[in-house]
Design a protein that fits this description.
This protein has one domain: PAS domain (Beta-Lactamase, 2-Layer Sandwich). The protein is of the alpha+beta class. The chain has a six-stranded antiparallel β-sheet with strand order 1-4-5-6-2-3, with helices on both faces. Strand 2 and strand 3 form a beta hairpin.
Amino acid sequence: MHGMIDHIENLQTSTADLTASFHRSLYSHWVQIADDNKFPDKKDFRPQLFSSFLPQVALITIDKNGYRDRLTGSAILERFRLSNQPNALSDSPDQAIRGIIRQIVDASLQTQAPLFMRGSVISDKLLPVAFTLVCLPLTVDGTDSLDTLLLAFEFPKQNSFDAFAIDSILQPSYM
């Protein structure tokens, strides 16, 4: 049972291959609203521009006491089999998911930059979940202080029949 980020790129200093169009759109919007600031202000972010992708977005708030998720989209909850509860990601009962979120937060705090990541979660509670992710830092007061991370997940399409068959083996309906 583990989660692993196997690839990280700083979007400001690399030519990351953002294959998901909504990743490109989000990053372009982030650059536009950042203007000449290190981080854009959270109040300037316009989620209505990306409404069809909000189920794939999570917001993580960072403060002196640590971090917590403020919003977790339904596609993320579904893919990681989490209930819709406060801090579903950061307080997940699944150690692998908590580990992935910790790696994302740590990398973001270390680089202080927008990041592209690729990783996976493998746990005895889940089928292996591969993902790509764009992590965009935001501030709440227009300063250079990172306050919030916008995580935009993209999950590869999987054969729903295969997933159903494997789930049925892992969790037989007669139990």
